[in-house]
Amino acid sequence: MSGGWNTIESDAGVFTYLVENLGVKDVQFEELIALDANFLRQQSPVYGVIFLFKYPTGEKPTGTPKDGSFDPTAADSLFFAAQTIQNACGTQALLSVLLNKEEEIDLGQPLKEFREFTQALPLDFRGEALSNSELIRDVHNSFARSSPFVDETQRVATEDDDVYHFIAYTPINGVLYELDGLQPAPISHGSCSFDEFPDKVIPVLQRRIDRYPINEIRFNLLAMVRDLRIRALEIGDQDWLYREKQKRSAWQWENALRRHNFVGFINEMLKGVARSKLKEGDTVYDQWIEDASSKTKARMESKSRTGESE
Q1: According to the 3-state scheme, what is the secondary structure of the chain?
Q2: Fewer Cβ atoms within 10 A, N terminus or C terminus of the chain?
């Protein structure tokens, strides 16, 4: 945990139920496995995309972005907040889309009130308001993986660390914006209507990925779309509706597992196995340990011979 915020995964099920628990209606996330404008268009309406990438910790900030241009005055009319705390960028990215889609999405009363309260604040104060929102922080943290081995210390990342960051892309007022809380202002990527978004955002994402070495594949892209169950009902596709309901059930199961720490369970299971062997006698227990050690040694030797590393 860092400053009260835990790390969450870039996962469609996590983000879908996170926004639902914040009070948002009829929104879900879909993972995109390819930069394909046609596939993205099939998910329409697409409100925006959330992009996860390895953050270049060794880069020094510059006065101009590597792609697009800063639009400092845009923050007066749209929601954009400076990121003021670690581990909150995933939720901040999805809020950067949601809170700029009041006319298209039912945000629910809590987020409507949050947007109204923060809109007149400077960017860093908006970030502080987000970081200090108990509702948003508690919902965010409820989707973090449970682990007894969490490092609660804070330190500045070095160039050797793998640090990942979430940002948002969304069309607002006829402009394609990149919303990154670590940047000083929204980044404009030119004119873009709501319908043009799938075609215009893909080249922007491709240019960003192209800045990395060709062997870098650690990216993730999630599209924020209208609940696909609604579309399935509208066109009367019962098979699609069934698949979407099954997907939701799987997401709920996975999210429930994330909240549980299984270390204690595994420990008790191992103790139970050991007790059962001890009841069979000391010689049986000793032979069991010896057999396990021999099998482990054989596997290690086999890997060593084939050039595999542990």
Answers
A1: CECCECCCCCCHHHHHHHHHHCCCECEEEEECCCCCHHHHHHCCCEEEEEEEEECCCCCCCCCCCCCCEECHHHHHCCCCCCCCCCCCHHHHHHHHHHCCCCCCCECCHHHHHHHHHHCCCCHHHHHHHHHCCHHHHHHHHCCCCCCCCCCCCCCCCCCCCCCEEEEEEEEECCEEEEECCCCCCCEEEEECCCCCHHHHHHHHHHHHHCCCCCCCCCCEEEEEEECHHHHHHHHCCHHHHHHHHHHHHHHHHHHHHHCCCCHHHHHHHHHHHHHHHHHCCHHHHHHHHHHHHHHHHHHHHHHHHCCCCC
A2: C
Catalytic residue among 89, 140, 189, 192: 89
Point out which residues pair with 178 in neighbouring strands.
169, 187
Position 1 scores a pLDDT of: 37
Q: Write out pLDDT tens, residues 254-263.
A: 988 877 666 6
pTM to 2 decimals? 0.80
pLDDT at position 221 is 95
260 in active site: no
- Quote the CA–CA distance of 153 and 167 in Å, as a whole number: 25
Over 60: is that where the pLDDT of 150 sits? no
Selected catalytic residue, list 140, 165, 189, 192:
165
CA–CA distance, 68 with 64 (Å, rounded to integer): 9
pLDDT over threshold 50, residue 241:
yes
- When the pLDDT of each residue in the chain is averaged and rounded to a whole number, the result is 87
The residue type found at 232 is A
Of 201, 215, 220, the C-alpha closest to 47 is 201
